[in-house]
Amino acid sequence: MTTHVLSDTGTLTGRSLRHILRSPDTIITTAVTPVALMLLFVYVLGGAINTGSDESYINYMLPGILLITIASGIAYTAYRLFLDLQSGIFERFQSMPIPRPSVLWAHVLTSLVANLASIAIVTGVALIMGFRTGASVADWLAVAAILILFTLALTWIAVIAGLSAKTIDGASAFSYPLIFLPFISSAFVPTDSMPTPVAWFAENQPVTSIVNTVRALFTQQPVGNDIWIALAWCAGILMVAYACATAIYRNKIS
Amino acid sequence: MTTTKTPEPAVRVQAITKSYKDLHVLRGVDFDVAAGSIFALLGSNGAGKTTLVRILSTLLKANTGTATVHGFDVSSAPGDVRKSISLTGQFAAVDEVLTGRENLVLVAKLRHLKNPGSIADDMLARFSLTDAGNRRAATYSGGMRRRLDIAMSLIGNPPIVFLDEPTTGLDPQARIEVWQTVKQLAKGGTTILLTTQYLDEAEQLADRIAILHNGTIIQNGTLAELKQLLPSAKIEYVEKQPTLEDVFLALVGDADTTDHAVSAGEESR
């Protein structure tokens, strides 16, 4: 049975990618909110925000916008998984000789592809709006690696939501707090401008270290300790969410 | 093949129980299904039919008791059981976003068969879905969806097929089409375990009928045996009226043509 893990995961991933191709609005709607936020912050609020650096504001806030993109994109993963569970196709797969992890991994890989597509769209709009970076290929790869890790971590949280939701609204509502997290971080304003307790929270939540790392990579600054804190957060969330999701899954399929 | 007087049953269920907290769904179920036969599990809603099918198709674990399917124990060799069966659940488990053909190709690929494309085309032809093959399954009528569902189940020719209430929610014509499919399958040597709450369905199809009531099998026999349980037939004179089903089928045309549903895009579920 294990010999088919890869091919079956591939087949099932092809299936859910086809779902996305048939409804590309899931990619576009994922990109719309971050793009709107970007327009709002750059052209309305940004002029009044003092970031304390000579970078243009769009250069400053793009990393946070990318994280918001991912946080809203993963809601669709929970949604698609929930629909599979509801429709009976999930049971069909479970009653077939398909390695059990393949069914979940197909959704996870699809989430990765869909989110990377949304990120590409948002980055494209940012470039049009004047985002510039002197990042080298290695810097870009490092940014991509961190964003992929972050996507995987949040996707496994989405899997938990998709598996345990009772209603379709419940399957996607979990992502709202995740979308909100970047606002209480260094993504849009420097944390030292916040009141002490808020600043403390902002500095010690995962988004800030990830934003700082990506920002440093884009502006060719040293990443310092932030990159390790960011990686630790992503890896930690990933492992806990993965463990919970697979436990719920095992419980669900008896 | 050695000839034996009593071949191994395709499905053997022994003292299966299943409870959810205080709710005892199955209280010790026993029966055998002979290879190549059609076995109907008859029972009203909530009798535990679906629970039993889910146990036999490895979706659920029994609390106690054993069940073997195609010679494999469902709890110790679920992988082998899954290779031997296919399940058609109560709700047509098709991917609505994909076309009918894509659904069939998907299953053929997951069963690691060669030429999934031509297998899909064969199945579309066999189930009169060729014209609708490139339409999304979401646009299918209930009968077409059920045919696609069964077609997906039959890919790879599993020796044992579980049909959980295969005709619930279907119109009379679609129902007869499903019956024909089941009969053809049995002719080809497939073992079929079907659950139903329709008495006439069990009567039409099954070689043996077991009645599941309150979590146990209260009777198990052929139709003739079950009929003998009641006092022998007495002769009454009744006016023979056509049933509404006769009228309906006569009005809407020949039920043997299976293509009727193809043009019924406007038919809503």
Structural features, described:
- Chain A has one domain.
- Helices cover 76% and strands 0% of the residues of chain A.
- Chain A has helices spanning 5-22, 25-45, 57-87, 89-94, 100-128, 137-164, 168-173, 175-180, 196-204, 206-218, 226-252.
- In chain A, helix 2 (25-45) runs parallel beside helix 5 (100-128).
- The longest helix of chain A has 31 residues, at 57-87.
- Chain B is an alpha/beta fold and 269 residues long.
- Chain B has a single domain (11-263), classed as P-loop containing nucleotide triphosphate hydrolases (Rossmann fold).
- Chain B has nine helices and ten strands.
- Chain B has helices at 49-56, 78-84, 100-110, 116-126, 142-154, 172-187, 199-205, 223-227, 244-252; strands at residues 11-20, 23-33, 38-42, 64-69, 72-73, 85-88, 160-164, 191-196, 208-213, 216-221.
- Chain B has a six-stranded mixed β-sheet, sandwiched between helices. A four-stranded antiparallel β-sheet of chain B has the order 2-1-4-5, with helices on one face.
- In chain B, helix 3 (100-110) packs across helix 4 (116-126) and helix 5 runs parallel beside helix 6.
- The longest helix of chain B is centred in the last third of the chain and has 16 residues, at 172-187.
- Mean pLDDT of chain B is 86; it is low at 1-5 and 257-269.
- At the A-B interface, helix 1 and helix 4 of A face helix 2, strand 6 and helix 3 of B.
TL;DR?
The complex is a heterodimer of chains A (254) and B (269). Chain A is mainly alpha-helical and 254 residues long.
